[in-house]
Design brief:
- The complex is a heterodimer of chains A (371) and B (385).
- With 371 residues, chain A is α/β, with parallel strands linked by helices.
- Chain A folds into two domains: 13-43 and 173-370, no CATH class; 50-152, abc type-2 transporter like fold.
- Chain A has helices at residues 2-20, 22-42, 61-72, 88-93, 107-112, 128-152, 174-205, 207-213, 218-247, 256-280, 284-300, 313-318, 323-335, 345-370, and strands at 50-56, 76-81, 99-103, 117-124, 160-167.
- The longest helix of chain A has 32 residues, at 174-205.
- In chain B, helix 8 (211-218) runs parallel beside helix 11.
- Chain B contains 15 helices and five strands.
- Chain B is α/β, with parallel strands linked by helices and 385 residues long.
- Classes of the chains: A alpha/beta (371), B alpha/beta (385).
């Protein structure tokens, strides 16, 4: 009972320390909101504006029909109409256009005589993923053009048609993937640094020693340091979740209880990582370095920016120790797929292990340093 | 050394003293050596990060696990199945019913389903065959790439079949594409220069984010103020050692990109070093500004993290192209230095010395460096009066 009272007092003191300073209060609540909004729009692989230049050597009604199909798609913006090849290089080099589309002089003649004809597309490959997406869009336009052409010119339809559907994200929008993922990403970044720095600060300022001469046991100090961070993490999660639901209107398929259970375990693991860093660091500079050294690999190897399936097998195994990977997987599965509790068990138990290991190491290190 | 750092003469006749600057630099270097975490930030962190991410990050989708539903094996459907199995792009699991396939998709054992229905052969004879495809859409970028692969595999099977049967080809438009600067479509080519930016952003801001705040917190800045040291000299003393450390890290990462990951360096190395020096100045100045404005290591570390790492990851063009982003968000991205460095570096690595891009981006970075340093100077000088 006494222990509980002591811990409560420490938790209260910690919350005050974080929320009393208006700047620190802002850094806890403002950024998650702003970042979700900004990154929600920015972090997308979808292209809604592809600037292109065209060099139409045929200038026939067929080529015009092809180009109007392109312009009518709403995605393509014609920036320049070329009359020779000389400007292609500089248009692409200067990033004025992403694509240059060249239509050969025999475009219409070949189409009318039932021969296949190629449209040449040059793409700026400096970002090959963007270029690939843009080329896919052109291919889709060509497919639509072919359909229209064979309908009006009595050609045969293609013998096989692919009909595709996408589960859990019917319009294949990157935003649906990214924004729920930000719940894990943003809270991880702040949780780790908040916990690591708050202990490091007490160390550096000598107040940690004062804590140690109080009746508080090391374990109680740890709990007192963790709970406020976890509470702040829950608030941040809720903020990001609200933006996802009410601003971006991404449909929530699962149960909030399951989601929050997963998030809670994740937060404990994240705080464990922060405490482990602070138990090793002697100065705030070292704590900051330690936080970065863990946050960056966690963030980049979480599957959010590049898929885990694309990584080499050994790295895929390493990512199993990454709490963010499991958190993002839980959020995606509950949010978009509506997964029940038993389906996220495969991500919950690794998170529990991570929390257990990091917290034990932290407690051991604190004890060890004391003696 | 940028001469704009030199403080104006505020009615004081003392000029910038090289002796004082030199001893400040010496003091800072000693501090770096005593707590080697700065050396770790500048030299060990970049190498560790570029090795890890250079090998791990890739947007090139290969060996996609797909479930192929063969409802009734006919010569035609087996032929299609063969085309999928022989392709490097897929790793095929063959099942006989849609039910089995959906279980696999739900458990994420496969990323997509391709279904050849019972009537595939019959419909094919009458040119009306439909192939149903379902992709797991959560990872949208991957889903779209997979969709493209499946269409491509089907399309090439159709044209091979037509050619094999000696059928006349149809009058149809195809796309012949060339990807300039990256013909082999290797995502490392743009991810590695982007990583250099991310790493430099971090090391730059991390190196200086705490140094001024530390002096304020420990009260040592007061002792500095009673010496003849001027604010500008103090800033130079705080910048030079970390600048040198940062450049060391930069050369290591660029070298790793070029020789370990074989990203072509088509522009000149001198220009790469030049724009990197500019960017490093911006990053260090940003760290110094945060540090002197907050005067608290705790707040400075949080702001440094929020202002550098995530924006450099999401809002710089490193992975996500900025062309399609709403105007308001684009406007925000113009405030971020990382955007200019990404653009300059990707161009220098892959396209070569395109002056229009390099000059505009360098000018933007130069402007930011000047602005940030003068702001920092002002924040530091305030207390001096």
């Amino acid at each position: 009972m006494d222990a509980l009272r002591r811990i409560m007092a420490l938790i209260w003191k910690e919350l005050l320390a974080i929320l009393k300073d208006p700047r620190s209060r802002f850094t806890v609540l403002g950024p998650p909101l702003l970042q979700t909004l900004i990154f929600g729009y920015a972090a997308t692989y979808d292209l809604n504006r592809v600037s292109y230049a065209v060099y139409d050597q045929d200038r026939s009604s067929a080529s015009r029909q092809f180009l109007s199909e392109l312009d009518g798609s709403g995605t393509f913006r014609r920036v320049a109409t070329l009359h020779d090849q000389s400007r292609i290089r500089s248009l692409i080099d200067d990033k004025r256009v992403l694509l240059v589309i060249q239509i050969g002089p025999d475009f219409e003649r070949r189409l009318l005589s039932g021969q296949p004809v190629d449209v040449q597309v040059i793409a700026d490959g400096r970002n090959s993923n963007t270029a690939g997406t843009a080329l896919n869009y052109v291919a889709a336009v060509a497919e639509r053009f072919n359909e229209a052409w064979s309908r009006t010119h009595g050609g045969q339809p293609p013998p096989v048609q692919a009909v595709s559907r996408s589960w859990f994200n019917p319009n294949i929008e990157t935003r649906w993937f990214m924004i729920p993922g930000l719940i894990g990403m943003l809270t991880l970044v702040q949780m780790v640094i908040l916990t690591a720095m708050s202990v490091a600060r007490e160390r550096e300022q000598g107040t940690f020693d004062q804590l140690l001469v109080t009746p508080l046991r090391p374990l109680e100090i740890m709990v007192g340091k963790s709970v406020p961070s976890i509470l702040i993490g829950l608030i941040q999660t809720t903020l990001v979740l609200c933006v996802a639901l009410f601003w971006f209107k991404i449909p929530f398929q699962g149960s909030f209880w399951t989601l929050y259970l997963g998030v809670l375990v994740f937060l404990i693991a994240a705080v464990g990582v922060g405490l482990m860093i602070s138990s090793v660091a002697a100065t705030m500079q070292q704590a900051l370095l330690g936080s970065f050294l863990t946050i960056m690999p966690f963030a980049l190897l979480s599957g959010l920016s590049t898929p885990i399936a694309n990584m080499p097998r050994e790295v895929q195994v390493i990512t199993l120790a990454n709490p963010l990977r499991h958190a993002i997987s839980i959020v995606h599965r509950v949010f978009l797929e509506g997964a029940p509790l038993q389906d996220i068990a495969s991500d919950l138990w690794p998170l529990t292990c991570i929390a257990f290991v990091t917290l034990s190491v932290a407690v051991w290190m604190f004890r060890h340093r004391l003696s | 050394m940028p001469s704009h750092l030199e403080p104006r003469n505020d009615g004081d006749r003392s000029r910038m003293s090289f002796r004082r600057v030199r001893s400040l630099i010496r003091k800072e270097i000693l501090q770096v050596i005593r707590d080697p975490s700065s050396i770790a930030i500048a030299l060990v962190l970049p190498v560790f990060l570029i090795l890890l991410f250079g090998y791990a990050l890739s947007l090139d989708v290969r060996e996609v696990p797909v479930a192929l539903v063969l409802e009734s094996p006919t010569p035609e459907s087996n032929e299609v199945a063969g085309a999928f199995m022989l392709s490097d792009y897929f790793r095929v699991a063959t099942v006989t019913s849609m039910k089995d396939a959906t279980v696999l998709l739900r458990d994420r054992k496969v990323d997509g389903i391709v279904r050849l229905s019972r009537d595939f052969a019959r419909d094919l004879a009458s040119n009306q065959a439909r192939v149903q495809m379902i992709v797991h859409g959560v990872d949208a970028n991957r889903a779209r790439i997979i969709e493209g692969y499946v269409r491509g595999a089907l399309g090439s099977w159709v044209s091979r079949r037509a050619a094999g049967r000696g059928e006349a080809s149809r009058g149809a438009v195809g796309i012949q594409s060339r990807m300039w600067f990256n013909e082999a479509v290797n995502s490392h080519y743009f991810l590695v220069p982007g990583l250099v930016v991310l790493i430099m952003t971090l090391t730059g801001a991390l190196l200086t984010a705490l140094v001024m705040a530390r002096e304020w917190e420990r009260g040592t800045i007061e002792s500095l103020f009673v010496t003849p040291v001027r604010a500008g000299e103090l800033l130079i003393g705080k910048t030079v050692p970390y600048f040198l450390l940062g450049m060391g890290g930069l050369l290591l990462t660029v070298g790793a990109g070029r020789y370990l990951f074989h990203v072509p360096l088509r522009g000149s190395l001198v220009l790469v070093v030049g724009v990197s020096m500019l960017y490093l100045m911006v990053a260090l100045a940003l760290g110094l500004l945060i540090s002197s404005a907050t005067r608290s290591q705790f707040v400075a570390s949080q702001i440094a993290l929020i202002a550098t790492f995530l924006p450099a990851l999401f809002l710089s063009g490193f992975i996500f192209d900025l062309a399609g982003v709403p105007t308001a968000v684009q406007a925000v991205s113009y405030l971020l230095p990382a955007r200019y460095y990404v653009s300059a570096l990707q161009t220098l690595f892959l396209a070569g010395n395109v002056w229009s891009i390099i000059l505009t981006n360098s000018a933007a970075m130069l402007l930011m460096a000047v602005l940030l340093f003068s702001l920092t100077l002002r924040k530091t000088r305030k207390r001096l009066d």
